[in-house]
Amino acid sequence: MSALLRRLMYFLGRSRHDADLRDEIEAHRAHRQDALERDGLASEAAARASQRAMGNVTLAVEDVRDVWVSGAVDQLWQDIRIAVRGLRKNPVFALVAIGTLALGIGANTALFSIFNGLILRPLPVRDPGRLALLTDGSWSYPVWAEIKARENDLFDGALAWSPQRFDLSRGGESAIVDGAYVSGRFFEVLGVSAVRGRMLTPADDSTAAADGRVAVISHRFRREHFAGADDVVGRQVTVQRRAFTIIGVMPPGFFGVDVGRMTDVMLPFAAEPLIKGQESWLAAVDSSWLEVMVRLKPGQSLEQANAALRGVQPQIRAATVTGVVRARAARYLTSPLTLASATTGRSSLRTQFETPLFAMVVAVGLLLLVACTNIASLLVARALARRRELSVRMALGGSRGRLARLLFTESLIVAMAGAALGLVFAGWSGALLVRQLTTWESNVSLELVLDWRVLGFTAALACASVMVAGVAPVLGLRSVAAGEALKDAGRGLAGDRRFAVRGTLAVAQIAVSLMLVTAAGLFLRSFASLSQLPLGFVPEPLLVAELDLLSSDAPIEQRGPRAERLRAAAAAVPGVRSASLSRVSLLTGGGWGANRVAIDDGPMPIEDRSAQRLWRNATTPGWFETMGTPLVNGRDFNDGDRVGAPLVAIVNHAFVRRYRLGEQPIGRTVRIGLSSGERRYEIVGLVGDSVYTSPRDGMMATMYVPLAQLGPTAFGETVVLTINAARGQRAAVERDVAAALARTEPTVAFSFRTFDQFIDATVTQERLIAMLSSFFGGLALLLAGIGLYGIVAQAMRTRQGEIGLRMALGAQPAGIVRLVLRRVGVLIVVGLALGLAGSLWAAQFVGPLLFQVETRDPATFVGAAGVLVAVGVLAAWLPARRAARLDPAAVLRDG
C-alpha cells in the first residue's frame, strides 16, 4: 500500500519530482566538473568530460521514473497527451465525434433513467427488500381490517392505502392534487420519519379519535403551497371542502409507494367517512378500493409469508363474505390471497409502459450502435489521413502495439467526453420524456436520479463505444508499413483494401438504420391509424364539466334537481348550443358495465367477469344531439322517461350486431342481471356507434338508459355535464359557464375538460412510441448518410490521381459518377438485405404495440428501404459530382 501511495504521490506531483531529479543530476555533474577544473582542465573541457562521465542522462531519468511510477502508466499518460493534442488540432472531427456519441449515449441514458426510476429502483424506505404486496387487484376495507387484526402474528407489520385525487378548492372550479387515504401505521411500517412534526399513528386512524381531521403533506406540497414555511405544522389545508390540520411533513424524495405518482396529501382512513358521509366505503364488503402491503419479519421468506397468510385465509374470507353477490360468493371464499415482492413499490404506470419502454431501450441501443459505427468510420478515415505520420512513428521504432494503444486512447477520450456530455443531454431529455407521460388524469412524477445504476450504465455504454469504435482503426494498422513514408502515397485501384473496413462499417450502418426506420414507420402508421379512427361523435365543439355533487353536502335525493339546475344554467349561457347530463364521460378509460345480459326471454348467463362487458350509460334527453351522435331509428329519451314509467333503452349498432337483433331492434327487450334481480328494458331507439373507453378498443356494444329513471342512485359523487359550444367560442363558453355554475350552486365543485384532452390521454403510449422511434430512425438515417458521404469523400480524395488519369484518357464526368454510384450501390444493397432480414425478425416482437398495422406491412418496409436508398444515393452523388469536376491536367501535374 505504501509503494502504491508513493507512486500515486509522484504521479500527482510529477513536474516537481522531475525538476528535482534533473537538479540533482546537474549537481552531480557540476561537482565532477569542479573536480576536473581543480585538476587543471579548462572549464569547457571539464564540462564536456563531466557530461561524458555522467553517461546517458535521459536513460537515467527514465530508469528513476520506472522506480517511482510504472512505465506503462507513464506511457499511457503520454498517449493521452498526444491524443488530446491531436484532437485539438482537428476540432471539427472532435466535435462531430463527441457530439454524435453524446446523442447516442444521452438518449440511452435518458431512457435507462426512466427505466431505472420506474422499474428498477427500490422504494426510498427502510429495508425495501422486506416489503410484499397483496396481489390480484384492490381490496375492501373489511378484508384489510381482518389482515390488520393479524398483522403482528403473520408479519412485521402491515399497511394499506387508497390513491385519491383530492380537491383543495373551497368552491367553484376544482384544484386537484394527488393524495391518498392511508392506514395509521403506514409510515411506521415503511420506516419513514417526518422532517417537520410527526407522522400518522393508529390513534389518528381511529374513528374515536379527533375525527380523523389531520393530514400529512409532502415536502413538495409544503414548498409550493406554503412557500416552504417552517411553521407549517399546525396550519390547515382544505380537502374536499373540509379543513384538516397539518401534523407532519414527509421527507424530500419520499413520494409514497405508488411509483410515478407524487402523493402530496395523506389522510387517515378515519377521514374517509367525514368526506363521503353515508356513501363511505369503510363498511362496504363488495367495494374494492384499497391496496395492501406487508413487511416481512427478519429472516421470513416470501414463501413463508404466503404460507402464513393462506393459513388464515379461510377465516378472513368467511368473515368478509357477507354482502358479496351470491353468484360470486363461492369463488370469493376459495380465491387465494397471494403476496408478491414490493421492493420497487406498486405502479400502474409501470404496468402500462413496461413493454413499450423496453422496446424503446432496444431501439435506442441500436441507435448507439449506428453512432459507434459512424465514429469508427470517422476514426478509420482519420487513421488513413495519418498513414504517413504512423509510418514515420514505426520507422522511428514505434511498435504496432504502441500505435494501436495510441489510436485506442483517442477513442477512449472521445467516448469519455461523449459520455459526460451525454449525461447532461440525458438529464434534459429524460425530464422532457416524463412530461410527455402526463395527461389530464395523471400527473406523472418520476425522480430521475444519477444513482450507481445510471452511472454504471453510462460507463458501460462508454466502454462498449470504445470497443466498437476503437477496434476498426486499430485493424487498419495491419496495412501500415514502416517504409511507407518513403514511398509515393499515390495508389490506384489496389488501394481498395484500405476502404474494406469502412465499407463493412457502412453496411452495418445501413442495416441497423433500416431496422430503426422500419420500426419508426410501423409505429407512425399505427399512431396515425389510431388518431384517425372515427369516434362516432364530433369532439371539436364539446366541453365536459365534471360536477362534484358530493362537495355540496346535499342529501342524495336533492342531487338530481341540483344537477338539472346546473345543466339549465349552462344551457342558458350565450354560445352554448346544447347541454346534457350523463353518468359516464366517453374516452376516460372506464365506465359502467354489465356482465349478465339476455335478450327477450333468452337464458340469463351466469356472472363471468372475464367475459366481454356490455357498456352502459345514463343520459338526459338531447344528449345524442349534444354529442353529435346520429339517431338512426326510433326516438330519443323524453321527459316522460322517469321513475315509475316503463324502463326504456337506446342501443347502438355494435349492440345489435353482438346480440344479433337483426334489422328491427326497436321493441325488443334487454334483460340485465343484477344482485337485486333482473331489470327489463324496452329498446326504443337505435343510434350510431361511438368509442366508449378508448380508440384502441373500437366501437363496443353500448346501451343507454334515461338518467331520470335510475332515481337518486344515478347521482353518485359526480355527474358529467357535456356542453356543445358554438364554433370558435369554446374558450369563451368555458369562462362564462364557470361563472354561471358558481352563481347557481356555489358549493358544487367542477372541473372542465375537452375531448381533445381525453383523446390525447388514450393515445399517450402510442404517441410516445411514435415520437421516440421517429427521432431514433431520423437520427440513424442522418448518421448513415454522413457515414456513407465520408467514405465516398475520403475515397475521392485518395484517388484523385486515378480519377484525373481516367478523365485524361477520355472518361466523361457522368461516367465517373456512375462508377462511384455503382460501387456504393453494392454497399447499399448488401446493407438493405441484412437490414431487411433483421427487420423481419424484430417485427414479430412489436406486434402488441401496433394498431391496425401488420408487423410485416409491405408498404412500410418498401418505404423505409426507399428512403435509405435515396439518402445513400444522395450521400454518394455529392462527393462523386465534385470529383468529376476536377481538372485532369492540374491533378496529374500536382500528382
Computed Rg: 38 Å
The poorly predicted ranges are 488-496
Mean pLDDT: 83
* Secondary structure: helix percent: 40-55%
Q: SS-based structural class? A: alpha+beta
The description of the largest β-sheet is: 10 strands, mixed
Overall tally of domains: 5
Strand content: 5-15%
Q: For this entry, what is the oligomeric state of its chains?
A: single chain
N- to C-terminal distance: 60 Å
Number of strands: 23
Spatial shape: globular
Q: Tally the helices.
A: 29
Layout of helices and strands:
Blueprint: H1 2-12, H2 14-38, H3 43-54, H4 57-68, H5 71-89, H6 91-120, E1 131-134, H7 141-149, H8 151-154, E2 158-167, E3 172-173, E4 176-182, H9 186-190, E5 196-197, E6 214-217, H10 219-226, E7 236-239, E8 242-249, E9 265-268, H11 272-276, E10 291-295, H12 302-311, H13 313-319, H14 326-334, E11 339-341, H15 348-385, H16 387-395, H17 400-437, H18 452-475, H19 500-531, E12 542-548, H20 556-571, E13 576-582, E14 592-594, E15 597-599, E16 614-619, H21 623-627, E17 631-634, E18 648-652, H22 653-658, E19 669-674, E20 677-687, E21 702-706, E22 718-725, H23 730-744, E23 749-754, H24 755-762, H25 764-798, H26 800-808, H27 813-843, H28 858-884, H29 888-894
Parallel strand pairs: 3-23, 4-9, 6-8, 16-21, 18-20
Antiparallel strand pairs: 1-10, 1-11, 2-4, 2-10, 5-8, 6-9, 7-8, 12-22, 12-23, 13-22, 14-16, 15-19, 17-20, 18-21, 19-20
